[in-house]
Design a protein that fits this description.
Length: 217
C-alpha cells in the first residue's frame, strides 16, 4: 500500500516538474518571440517629431507672410485713399461764375479751392489806364494784355504775394488793391506798384464761355 502511494506521489512530482519546465519554456519562448517581433520605434519617433517641427515652421512662415502681405495691401490702400481728393475738394476744382451779374466798375469775390478770387468788371477808362503803364518800370514786368485775356474782365487770386494777406479792392495809391497788413499797393491790373510784395497778384487758370460765364480752374 505504501509503495503504491509513494509511486503515485513520485509520478505526480515528475509530472508537475515537467509541467513547470514546460511553462517556463513557454514563457521564455514567448518572451523571445516578443522581443524578436517588436520593432524599435525610437528612430521613427525622432524622425516624426522633426518632420512635425518642420511642418509647423513652414506653416508659421507661410501664415506670417500671408498676414504681412494683407497688412501691406491695406496700408497702401489706406495711403492712396488718403491721398485721393475728397468729394468736396473735387467739387471745388472748377468754379463757374455768371458775369452778367457783375456791374461795370465793380468787384466780386468768389471762393475757389479755399482761396478768394477777385473778379473785376473794368471800365474803359480803367482798361486804358492799365495799358498805358510803362511795363519796364514795374517791379514784376507784365503787360495788362498778358493778365487780362478779355480786357473788361480781370480775374486774380486775391492773396497778397508778400505774406498771404487778402488785399482790399478799390483802394490804394493806384486805384486797384491795397494790402493793409504791410502796405502793398496794386494797380487796376493787379500789378505791384508800391510796398514789400515782390510779385503781381497771381492770375489763375480760367476761360470764358460764349454765354458770358467764366470757368476758373
Amino acid at each position: 500500500m505504501s509503495l503504491a502511494f509513494a509511486a503515485r506521489s513520485l509520478a505526480r512530482s515528475a509530472a508537475a516538474a515537467r509541467n513547470g519546465s514546460a511553462v517556463r519554456s513557454l514563457h521564455t519562448t514567448v518572451a523571445k518571440a516578443s522581443a524578436a517581433e517588436m520593432p524599435d520605434f525610437s528612430a521613427y519617433k525622432k524622425t516624426s517629431s522633426a518632420a512635425n517641427d518642420r511642418n509647423f515652421a513652414y506653416f508659421m512662415v507661410g501664415s506670417t507672410g500671408f498676414l504681412t502681405a494683407v497688412a501691406a495691401k491695406n496700408t497702401v490702400h489706406d495711403f492712396l485713399t488718403n491721398l485721393s481728393a475728397s468729394a468736396d475738394v473735387l467739387a471745388l476744382a472748377k468754379v463757374e461764375v455768371d458775369l452778367t451779374t457783375i456791374p461795370e466798375g465793380k468787384n466780386v469775390v468768389v471762393k475757389w479751392r479755399g482761396k478768394p478770387i477777385f473778379i473785376r468788371h473794368r471800365t474803359q477808362d480803367e482798361i486804358q489806364e492799365a495799358a498805358s503803364v510803362d511795363v519796364a518800370s514795374l517791379r514784376h514786368p507784365e503787360s495788362d494784355a498778358e493778365r487780362a485775356t478779355k480786357p473788361e474782365w480781370l480775374v486774380m487770386l486775391g492773396v497778397c504775394t508778400h505774406l498771404g494777406c487778402v488785399p482790399v479792392g478799390e483802394s490804394g495809391d493806384f486805384g486797384g488793391w491795397y494790402c493793409p497788413c504791410h502796405g502793398s499797393h496794386y494797380d487796376i491790373s493787379g500789378r505791384i506798384r508800391k510796398g514789400p510784395a515782390p510779385l503781381n497778384l497771381e492770375i489763375p487758370e480760367h476761360s470764358f464761355t460764349e454765354d458770358d460765364k467764366v470757368i476758373i480752374g
